[in-house]
Amino acid sequence: MNTTQRVSEILTTYGIRPSIQRVGIYDYLLTHRTHPTVDEIFSHLSPAMPTLSRTTIYNTLTLFASKGAIMVLNIEEKSQRFDAGIKPHAHFLCTECDKIFDFPQPLVQLDEQIMRDFEIVETQIYYKGICKTCKKNHL
Amino acid sequence: MNTTQRVSEILTTYGIRPSIQRVGIYDYLLTHRTHPTVDEIFSHLSPAMPTLSRTTIYNTLTLFASKGAIMVLNIEEKSQRFDAGIKPHAHFLCTECDKIFDFPQPLVQLDEQIMRDFEIVETQIYYKGICKTCKKNHL
DNA sequence: GTATCTGCAAAACATTTGCAATTCT
DNA sequence: AGAATTGCAAATGTTTTGCAGATAC
């Protein structure tokens, strides 16, 4: 089974019809786990799909998110980032080199009363600081 | 001691010179714990300070954040929100009414090795879901 | 009097919207 | 054909920038 077929099946699982663009975008997210911005996705896919537009990428990502196929990250002020997540994980943003790292999702225990009052759909944990490499370069 | 003096002292503690605008903005953040956007701050302070500009609010908030006097929230996609935080706390965004609630900061325990490799300056925890009031209105 | 701070106007971006053309079934 | 999807061009909204005038030390 080739890549396109495999990605198509995943999208179908989420109730998303697999168009060429959707498969391309989802495949990109799966193979480039760099939490790309819309622009990065556009720049990488554009050469192979010359007619692809930013609008379609926005449409597609909004659709993916609404179906739960991807996670939208707001760790960075300027623009949203996207993650075709397997299992939930936390994110670390290095304020020096702007790279985003995946961290294991720590267990967070909420108050019983809050759990009763609020229906929690999603939990995002963002760390900010200096990454290993940038720490070294400071020395 | 009046409010202006008290706020001025706090700003001085952070190494920020207390101008009229800065004191006004910081005081607003302290007394309105609504995680306001730049626009909300502007709308509320503008009548009392007619010459105040959005640019100054941006400048000021950037300065505050760099000195650690406030926290920048990116829980909402559209615009940044600000918090003159006393102690660290988590945030809950109701996707129904768009209100933001303060939650107690749960203890998150990170892997020893990660703690050694990364210098973590800030931890933000965002919950999204349906708040108490909106849950009731669904029934 | 020099450095800092403010604020206008314009620019820069990211994202959304309206709509016509295209594609799929 | 009819519904869903794509993508151009224009609009919107937030944040940034350049710079001149005002303020503080």
- What summary fits the major beta sheet of chain A? 3 strands, mixed
Helix fraction of chain A, binned, reads 40-55%
Poorly predicted regions of chain A: none
- The oligomeric state of the chains shown is homodimer
Distance between the termini of chain A: 50 Å
**Outline of chain A, from the CA principal axes?**
globular
N-to-C series of helices and strands of chain A:
HHHHEEEEHEH
Tell me the number of helical segments of chain A per DSSP (H or I, 4 or more residues long). 6
Q: Report the strand count of chain A.
A: 5
Strand order in the largest sheet of chain A = 4-3-5
Label the structural class of chain A. Answer: alpha+beta
List the chains of the largest interface with their residue counts.
A-B, 35 and 35 residues
Radius of gyration of chain A: 17 Å
Average pLDDT reading of chain A:
91
